[in-house]
Amino acid sequence: MNQSLKETSDRIAHLAAVVLARPSSSHQEKELAGSALAQHHTAKQTSAAIGSLAARVLADHNACMEARELAGSVLAQVRRHEQAPAR
Fold this sequence. Notes:
Layout: H1 10-21, H2 27-38, H3 48-59, H4 65-75
C-alpha cells in the first residue's frame, strides 16, 4: 500500500471553507472543498471517486480557478491503492 505524506495546507483549507460558505458554489466545488477540509491536519486521503471528480474538473477549461485549485490539491492526495489495475 502506497501512503501519501501530503496534507492540505492552511491556505487550501481556507479556500475550501470559503467555497462551502458561498451559496453560489456548485455541487462539484462543494464536494472538492469538503474533501480538502477532511484532509486538513489529518492522515485522510482522497478517495478514488473524488480523485476522478478532481481530474474531470481539472480537464474542464470552463471550471473556475477555485475549483481547479481545490481539484489539484485533492488529486495530489489520491489513495494510490484504490486505483483500478491497468489492463
